[in-house]
Amino acid sequence: MMRRFRQLVPLAVIAALVAAAPVAADESTSALGGASDVDRAAWQGKDDPWSGYDAGYDAGQDVVVGCDGAMGCEAAIACGGPLCCRRPGLVAGMELPLLQAHYGACSLAMPREQVALPQCTPDFDHEATPRFWLGYETCDGLAFRVRYWQFDHTASAVDAQNGYYVEAGVAAEDLDFELAQSVQFGNWQLEVAGGARWAKVSDDVLVRWEEYLDVWARSFEGGGPTFAVAARRPLGIGGLGLVADFRASFIYGDADLALSDQLLGVGDDIRMTVDDQVLEVYEIQVGAEWSRTTCAGWRLTGRVVLEGQVWELAPGPGPLGLFDTNLGFVGPSFSLAIER
Predict the structure, then answer these.
(1) What CA–CA distance (Å, rounded) separates 200 from 315?
(2) Which of 17, 209, 248, 317 has its Cα between 20 and 30 A from that of 299?
């Protein structure tokens, strides 16, 4: 009897230990699980530099990080991705508009010769007219820029029936100093800019008939305010977007006029100055843009747009009716810009 009892005691102890083991394991697991939940909640409460990336990527929008997000921005740049981290640095670009000048028609009447010639319109071709800009942009989207553009080309026309030749030359240039602020408004990226512009425009007309020659020249130079609004709408397809720009400038200055006449007998080398004239300049661009942010933080942008300009000079004295006071430019434009 005692022998059987001694054999059963070890078996009972083993059974008790086996029964208690799951309870201890459950308590240990519960304790560890509670600690894990606390750690996970604490980790999720920390700032995540990737927060907003997936949302911006799925929506096809740039996630703009300002001054407060500068530290997270370093970790958030994806190679070639849509994420845009704005950092202070230089902005520079070059644009090549292929513009055609619309100068208007030239007409000439010669009562002394009792000849009235029809209107003759010099035909300008599409010409390369470069534009450059250089500036600095802060991390909150405020930028200072300097922009320069120039046009200097000639065109001619021949009236074979009446035997006269007309040549017209147009030169225009402007230099802008401006402040610009860019903001995000829903799916749109907007920029408002304002500053000062220096501008100069000159045109001349040469009319030759037989041995007679007339030359009419005009030049205007001045300065004034300029204002611009730009909009970009990302499409969410490989960095593509739609763009539209509008700019208006009001230039105040003086105009110089000169005439050398042989056809009408008015006189030789007549010169005059017209003070306090106003030149209005309106510019518009509409087209498409492609942009990409590199791993090093550089943002590359290329544009293809249709550009139009109107230069409206207040009417002044114009003998012979040889010129139209307004100028226009229109044509495609291609640009490449880089931001850091």
Answers:
(1) 16
(2) 248
321, 301, 282, 260: which is closest to 106 by C-alpha?
321
CATH code of the domain in which 204 resides = 2.40.128.90
Q: Among residues 166, 159, 86, 91, which one has the least CA distance to residue 122? A: 166
Neighbours of 29 (CB within 10 A): 10
Instruction: Tell me if 327 is assigned to some domain.
Output: yes
In-domain check, residue 203? yes
Tens of pLDDT, residue by residue over 319-335, are 444 444 678 999 999 99
Please spell the DSSP secondary structure of 124-151, one letter per residue. PPEEE--EEEEEEE-TTSEEEEEEEEEE
Does residue 27 lie within any of the structural domains?
no
Asked if 260 contacts 214 with a C-beta cutoff of 8 angstroms, the reply is yes
Average pLDDT in the 266-286 region?
A: 82
Instruction: Work out how many domains the chain is built from and give that number.
Output: 1
- Residue range of the domain that includes 132: 87-339
Length of the chain: 340
Is residue 240 assigned to a domain? yes
Q: What is the pLDDT of residue 30?
A: 46
Encoding tokens for residue 54? 């997936």
Mean pLDDT for 252-262 is 79
C-alpha distances in angstroms, 1 versus 4, 6, 7, 10, 11?
5, 9, 10, 16, 16
